Amino acid sequence: MSRILVSDPIAREGMDLLSQRHQVDLRPGLAKDELKRILPDYDALVVRSETKVTADVIEAGIKLQVIGRAGVGVDNIDLEAATRRGIAVVNAPTGNTLAAAEHTMALILALARHIPQANASLRLGEWKRSAFVGVELRGKVLGIVGLGRVGSEVARRAASFNMRLLGYDPYISPDYARNMGVELASLEDVFRRSDFITLHTPLSDNTRGLVGQRELQMMKPGVRLVNASRGGIIDEDALFKALEDGHVAGAALDVFVKEPPGDLPLVKHPRVIATPHLGASTAEAQQEVAREVAQEVMAILDGRPARSTVNLPFLPPDVHKVVAPYMETATILGKLVPQLAVGQFLSLSIRYSGELANYDTSILKAAVLVGLLSGVTEERVNVVNAGVIAAQRGLRILEEKDTTPAEYPSLVMLELKTQQGSIALGGTRIRDETHIVRANDFALDVVPSSPYLLFIDHQDRPGMIGALGMLTGRHDINIAFMVVGRQAPRGQAMMVVGLDDAVPEAVMQEIRAITYMASARLAKL
Question: Which pLDDT belongs to residue 318?
């Protein structure tokens, strides 16, 4: 029987499950020094968000096998320190999915029928039926930005209201969307065609300010917005202005940039419905989260793999020497290919050549998926759960192996196919560094050491490099390096430029306008 310390309150259902087979002590509100003093006696630690599991706390847990977080986020746990000590960290990523989806539907309905405003008016003794004429959901286009767990559940529920479903998520398969009755479209199309728009993306550098002044203006007049995902995805100032001028008919917000939002004018706008981050706040969700984390903790204590381990496992020693160095290469390639591709995901092929092909490469496949999926889901994607997340999204992943010796001792080659074409990248390890040595049909040698990589497909002509250098210099964008691969003199060529600075879209348009330029795509590492 193992000893489990629960240092934050969790629902009774989780406590009962743990207590059936283990000794469980509930000790909420422990000071850090007291936690460190008693932790050496425990095999497992279960927390919510109050307990901060820092590196020194983890060091004190000399018997710890697992740390469980009753919720999704694990920001209060030092994952690196836990991994270093061989301690599994598990969470409960699915327990609040239905609660968040139902809250989204509640906000959509409240927005359509002015329910909070009508209730407030009636409580004042008013009877203003004509002031609260709403709209029906039947036949309206619901744009869903992000079709992960919550977005998919919203789609299924909105379909029962006979809404027409339009979705944006480059990281799901068309078949998966089709089975839910969702028409996949570009982000711009979703903004332009939708009557209601609901956001279900994680907050990252790519999604911060995703809905700003430009995006709001491209939406239909009278559009209604819902955000129950993360604050910061919508530019709050821009939304306030769009509500003021009437372009946006209403907004329902459960999350804010700053929480609590304080004296935020947006919250007080008459056409805004605001709730205090209630997406997961149901009795059932709290019970399910507690059950889920309890099951994950017990799996680890029983020596079984847990479904939601969120830190990296250790590689078996027999494959570590050969395979482990390529995890960085695989992750980088996985991060780059979706940024260089255009169109909806169809399939991803991974080819291992040379020495690597003689080993179990499942962890490299997982590393590729970590790069591909990081930033597109609320869950922390790692080599443990990446395959599960890819399967949930219906992604088609193919693997090939070729042990024939080639130009490089080992090579990892990715080809991402979309509805509009494909992109292929190959990488290897040279002198303990990742080198990108293939880009479509071009051989080159790029060390991805800059925060931004600019991939340019062009005709090899005198002055091309100079034209690009002049343009970036004019916009104060610093070039770190430049590599060109070509098939023949004055033929088709691929230029890869390492940049220290981001490139605004207006500058990208100037780059694409350079004579003999076929395409230019910017990737962020």
Answer: 61
pLDDT digits (tens, 9 = 90+) for 156-208: 999 999 999 999 998 888 889 999 999 999 999 999 999 999 999 988 888 99
* Contact of 280 with 99, CB cutoff 8 Å: yes
Residue 309 maps to a domain = no
Range of the domain at 508: 443-525
Return the bridge partners of 188, or none. Answer: none
Q: Are 224 and 248 within 8 A, CB to CB?
A: yes
DSSP code at position 50: S
Of 385, 406, 440, the last residue of a domain is 440
pLDDT in tens, 18-33: 999 999 999 999 999 9
Q: Considering the domain boundaries, does residue 31 fall inside one?
A: yes
Same domain (yes/no): 172, 204: yes
State which H helix or E strand residue 296 sits in. helix 283-301
- Final residue before a domain boundary, out of 417, 440, 463: 440
> Residue 292's domain is classified under what CATH number?
3.40.50.720
- Show the tokens assigned to 512: 């694409």
Known active-site residue 259 = yes
Catalytic residue among 247, 277, 307, 435: 277
Asked if residue 252 and residue 149 are part of one domain, the reply reads yes
Per DSSP, which regions of 146-296 are E strands? 164-168, 182-184, 196-199, 223-227, 248-253, 272-274
SS3 assignment, position 462: coil
435 is catalytic: no
Q: Is the domain of 117 the same as that of 176?
A: yes
Residue in 126, 244, 259, 400 annotated catalytic: 259
Active-site residue, from 103, 230, 351, 393: 230
Q: Do 101 and 91 have their domain in common?
A: no
Task: Look up 230 and say whether it is catalytic.
Answer: yes
Q: 498 has which bridge partners? A: 453, 481
Q: Which helix (H) or strand (E) holds 322?
A: helix 317-323
**Together in a domain, 109 and 230:** yes
- As a whole number of angstroms, the distance between CA 127 and CA 34 comes to 59
d(CA 334, CA 420): 19
| Cα–Cα–Cα angle for 292, 176, 295, rounded to 5 degrees | 10
pLDDT digits (tens, 9 = 90+) for 432-470: 899 999 999 999 999 999 999 999 999 999 988 899 999
